[in-house]
Amino acid sequence: MVTLTIDGREVQAEEGAMVLDAARDNNIYIPALCSNEAIKPYGACRLCLVEIVTNGKERLVASCLYPVEEGLIVKTNSERVMNNRRTIMELLLARCPSLEVIQDLAKRLAVDKTPFKLEDKRCILCGLCVRACEEVVGVSAISLVNRGIDREMASPFYEFPDACIGCGSCAYVCPVETITLEDVGDTRTITMPNPKMQKTEFKLKKCKICGNYWAPEKQLDYITKTLSLAPEIFDVCPDCRE
Amino acid sequence: MGAKQLAEKVESILDNYQRDQGMLVSILQDIQAEYNYLPKEALVEVSQTLGAPLSRVYSVATFFKAFSLEPRGRYLINVCLGTACHVRGAVRILETIERELDIRPGKTTQDLKFTLETVNCVGCCALGPVVIIDGEYHGQMKTDKVKVLLENYT
User: What are B63-95's pLDDT values in tens digits?
Assistant: First the structure.
């Protein structure tokens, strides 16, 4: 265990843990959009920045990527942190003014307007969807493409992603709720915020007992294959299984 | 260009790098050098042979400006728009070339002869305005010299 000081409070954290996790475990609020406990930290949204003191010097770091150290002093709401965080929030608000999650978070951080030119993007490029697809699901159907101001989340060639199994993890992890998933009848539709991409539709499997459509066929095929299960195992939905 | 030929060519390039995923950028550079652009089929082939997700190959291919996913012209025209060239009228040179070839920067003529690009300084400011065609430097460019210059390339 490592002892560090966050906002004047001495807290304990496991070695190797990140400052953000240590703070959250002790109910100290640090805003963050691109972090998810199931996915490796990435440091994209920069909202979680905090001030740390090492060797008597103060500097700003992304707390999601900074491992705890013995005796580390962390300030999560110093004036410098708040000023920088506000600017980051203003940039996010300018990029995605129509996203509710962004509006709410801006309000929480006392940002009610932005001095930057408004755009109407619906994605903050945090890459959570891409990272979930690669790290958790293991299919890597989508990625961040292009560079600089043209950067966007997309499938290869903006086409229907063959590798996608329709599991919907991307929609589940999306911190700004911009990837949506809808099951209607026997079809699941996943909508990405990229207008150049087509809608991705997946056929759902019908349960042999209750007749409900319960999961995409492609996803079930993928699970049977990767875990070498018998294909019949998914003929019945979890609710009807004993 | 047949699909089989392309697959064979890509395979041989991949073999040069022992099919190592870590060499992806070099592999794409070699494919680009061979075809002047990255054909979609080549990217699919690279992904399958390396066992790397197509999304990653596509991500890398779109990240670097040196790669193009669209066919490029036989000759690459680079118009320098650095400060020194700019104040000596590089923008007018560029506009003349655009009119002459009927393309915008970043695009390729329909006959796949020229691709037009701009750069921000090539380091020989004394020659400005500079136009580089396929590595050949043409200094002290003038708008009325553009047409003759382009006609030299067939």
Answer: 998 899 999 999 999 999 999 999 999 999 999
Residue A225 maps to a domain: yes
Query: Which pLDDT band holds residue B1 (cuts at 50, 70, 90)?
Result: low
- The ipTM value here is 0.90
CATH code for the domain in which residue B112 is found: 3.40.30.10
**B86, B142: one domain:** yes
Pair A139, A210 in one domain:
yes
Total domains present in chain B = 2
- The answer for A 77-136 residues in CB contact with B (under 8 A) is 130, 133-134
Do B114 and B137 lie in one domain? The reply is yes
Tokens of A52: 């740390």
Token code pair at residue A67: 């491992």
Domain housing B89? 75-151
Interatomic CA distance for residues B97 and A96, integer angstroms: 38
Which residues does residue A189 pair with via DSSP β-bridges, in sequence order? Answer: A182, A201
Closest CA to B114 of B69, B56, B143, B153: B153
> In the predicted model, what is the mean pLDDT of chain B?
94
Q: What is the pLDDT of residues A205-234, one digit of tens each?
A: 999 999 999 999 999 999 999 999 998 899
CB contact under 8 A, B55 and A141: yes
- Report d(CA B102, CA B27) in Å as an integer: 33
Give the number of beta-carbon pairs within 8 Å between A and B.
39
Structure tokens at B22: 């870590």
Range of the domain at A214: 128-234
pLDDT at B58 over 80: yes
B40/A157 Cβ within 8 A: yes
For residue A148, the number of C-alpha atoms closer than 13 Å in the C-beta half-sphere is: 2
